[in-house]
Model the fold of this input.
Amino acid sequence: MELSDTKNRTPSSQVLETLLDQAPADFFTFGWLISALHQRSFGIVMLLLGLLATAPIGSTVPGLVLAVVAVQMIAGRRDLAFPHFITARRLPTRYLFLLGARSIPVLRYLENAIHPRWPTTFEAAKRFVGIFVLLLTAILLLIPVPLSNIAPAIVIALIALAYIEEDGLLICFAFLAAVVLIGVASAAVWGTVVSAMLIIRFW
Done:
């Protein structure tokens, strides 16, 4: 059974389990991942990239791909599209299994509390998912402080999970967390700029 044939609102943990069951033995490509997910590609890819970006190091590549995903969501695309050199690049399947082994148990636990609700709120909020993910990705990539990637990456994963599960309550909570992070990051950047200007002025 293809992932595209699964019913709407299938729990994320089940989608990832099906994905792992269908994964090629040795290597997979990003193109295969997108085609396997089909209509769920935006949400699941955001979730996987958000989880990958929580790593203390190595968040740059997931962050760049997240930015591309966010821009396509803002543009209103129905399916993800990437250049051939990205979709054709082979990655070891074991990376996918490692990510699944870490994330699926957590997702199963979270799914006890996450489910479709507040449909009107969700429909209104989902239009802004791409904008918030893009802003959080900017924090992820541009704030050169050790471990500063973890908080925005977690919030991106929460937004993705709310988007997949159509949970209006969770998406509101995730947006609130995003606003707080964006405010803190903006204040930190502004403080750095002001300090630099003062140093230059009195040098």
Summary: The first strand starts at residue 27 and ends at 29. The CA atoms of residues 116 and 167 lie 5 Å apart.
